[in-house]
Amino acid sequence: MADVAKEAGVSHQTVSRVLNEHPNVRSETRARVQEAIDKLGYRRNLVARALVTKHSRTLGVVSFDTTLYGPASTVYGIEQAARAAGYFVSIVSLKSIDKLGVNDALDYLTDQGVDGIVVVAPQRSAAQALAELPFGVPTVAVEGGEAGEASVVCVDQVEGGRLATEHLLSLGHETVWQIRGPSDWLEAEGRVAGWRAALEQAGRPAPEPLAGDWSPRSGYEAGRSLASMKDVTAVFVANDQMALGVLRAFTEQGVRVPDQVSVVGFDDIPESEFFSPPLTTIRQDFGAVGRHSIEVLLRQIEGQGSHERERLVVPPSLIPRASTARR
User: Fold this and answer.
1) In angstroms, how far is CA 289 from the centroid of its own chain?
2) Do the strands 281-283 and 234-237 form a parallel or antiparallel pair, or are they unpaired?
3) Which of 64, 66, 54, 76 minimizes the C-alpha distance to 293?
4) pLDDT at 16 (0 to 100)
5) Is pLDDT at 20 greater than 90 in this prediction?
6) What angle do CA 192, 287, 20 make, to 5 degrees?
7) What is the pTM of this model?
8) How far apart are the C-alpha atoms of 277 and 23, rounded to whole Å?
9) Of 14, 16, 187, 199, which residue is most buried, by most CB within 10 angstroms?
10) What letters, b where the CB count within 10 A reaches 16 and e where it falls short, cover 36-50?
11) Across residues 255-278, what is the average pLDDT?
């Protein structure tokens, strides 16, 4: 900073004000300082700055199974929102979802001096582990159910299941079959609850859901079973990857979509509009989840909501395409 000040012909304090975007600096002075910064290749010493301000400008993110579209998209949304707010992100991806694994991740990030932590906790076991941990740092849980004292930001999975089911019923189908996600996932539970509630409200029977594991193969196996049932005309699949497997199974078994069976997925992955036929699905706004997560976390860091547990719910939306048709 002393070199920059000398090059620009200003004081050390003026350079500091420019770097911190202080308004009381004349535009020509600011331009001269910026020119000196560019010429000398000056970069801030973030470690030294953190020692002075007591803030590292770094946020921690703990996630599970980022090979799946939902968790990966959630982490991406969080990272983009954090960068837009001027924060770096340190990510820990865990295979173990027990209390020890979560605790180790939080300890690791706390030792790095992060200002706050976002935990992506879509599984019930992860949310339970999070609920049992003491919080010594601002923390937000994403899809975390009842994560103890932590604030929660989530997509309304129940509403998503309801939207999918009501769409199919509105097309004249007598009932809707479902291929659900893994039983430990809060998202899978919410989608089942919305599906069941919509059927009950319409006075329609709820067939026993078929089990899936989010993979196209599990959707394919469930689709083969459904293809052999003559009374199946509508299927709500708990994610688009499994829906891809269902479409493949139906094609192999000679079941025409949507002429004979209508199919709705969930997530609106980028490939879903290029399925054959293009997939009707429920869209999750992962960008909104990321923004709200960072907003809630920054309120805690800045002391505006440190003693208030927040719960923000992001609404999903129906994306109609060619895989559903009137009965």
Assistant:
1) 6
2) unpaired
3) 76
4) 78
5) no
6) 145
7) 0.82
8) 56
9) 187
10) bbeeeeeeeeeeeee
11) 97
Q: Enter the tokens of residue 49.
A: 């700055």
What is the average pLDDT value for the chain, to the nearest integer? Answer: 89
pLDDT at residue 45 is higher than 80: no
pLDDT digits (tens, 9 = 90+) for 126-180: 777 777 766 678 989 998 776 567 889 999 999 999 999 999 999 999 999 999 9
Instruction: Read off the amino acid at residue 108.
Output: Y
The amino acid that residue 234 corresponds to is A
| Residue 302 backbone phi and psi in degrees, to 5 | -85, 0
